[in-house]
Amino acid sequence: MSKKIFIKTFGCQMNEYDSNRIIDLVKLIGYEKTNNQIDADCCVLNTCHIRSKATEKVYSEIGRIKKNFKNIKKPLVIVAGCVAQAESEEMLKRDPYIDMVIGPQSYHEINDKILNYFRENKKINLTEFNVIKKFDELEKIKNSDSKISSFLTIQEGCDKFCNFCVVPYTRGPEYSRSFDQIINEAKILVANGSREITLLGQNVNAYYFKSGGKVYKLSNLLLELEKIKGLV
């Protein structure tokens, strides 16, 4: 019988995209999504660090998990996303109920880390900035999102370092996905039933990808996406 995974997503549309891709990944090791937390063998909190009191919202949700599982077997508790990236070690120390923290550029390794956790029973802190490897790995796994309106990440990170913003520290420097990767994933989403795709990024206008001596910008991407039959 397959195990159940519950994901609560905080914050931006990019986290929604990431949560959907986490579900696609963990299917490979026998997990299926549940919308009922109490049924879960694994609870993932995909967090946002932009909103006020973001960290306390995470601990509040962990309190709910503790209450729900007070008299039954504890689930594997994973804190993912930007709060995990910013406060990883502190979170593991502050609340022993947390088993794993995974930053937004590392979740492509979630399957290996889940399996390692059950083998070794050790807390895991995975907060590397390895965005290139992340998207290369995700390219191998079909996006199963079948909503009429879907999200598609084309760019991550920011180089602006504004005084008020944590994004460069939680999502890393600007990185643009491969032009072909984006078009291929868009075609998969349309084949799944999507008719509208929202392109995501911390700085979408900064999209810039160079391959084979050719430069692709956001305008090139939009023109190519427009050719996909089925998009409105």
TrEMBL record:
One of its GO terms (molecular function) is metal ion binding. Keywords: 4Fe-4S, Iron, Iron-sulfur, Metal-binding, S-adenosyl-L-methionine. Its cofactor is [4Fe-4S] cluster. Residues 3-120 form the MTTase N-terminal domain. Residues 144-232 form the Radical SAM core domain. GO terms for cellular component: cytosol. This is Uncharacterized protein. It comes from marine metagenome.
